[in-house]
Amino acid sequence: MVTAFVLCVTDAGKEREVVQKMKSMPYVEEAYVVYGEYDVIAKIAVDELKKLDTFITENVRTIASVQMTSTMIAI
After folding, report:
1. Dihedral sign from CA coordinates of 61, 45, 35, 16
2. How far apart are CA 28 and CA 42, in angstroms?
3. Among 18, 42, 15, which residue's Cα sits nearest to residue 30?
4. How is the chain split into domains, by residue range?
5. What is the pTM assigned to this prediction?
6. Separation CA 60–CA 28 (nearest Å)
């Protein structure tokens, strides 16, 4: 099992919209609006690293209001 935290910078005022979209996606266990350098944090759990790469590239980064992501893989 691979657990990762994805931090997102979003368009201004779109944080809650991004959180709702992420919560409806498979593999997203939790998603929250946060204050600071990033606007959204999500906990992702997949069964292999390749699936994490595909999920972030094809699902998270394609959300129109997401400007940037940073992924932290938990050990």
Report:
1. positive
2. 7
3. 42
4. 2-73
5. 0.92
6. 10
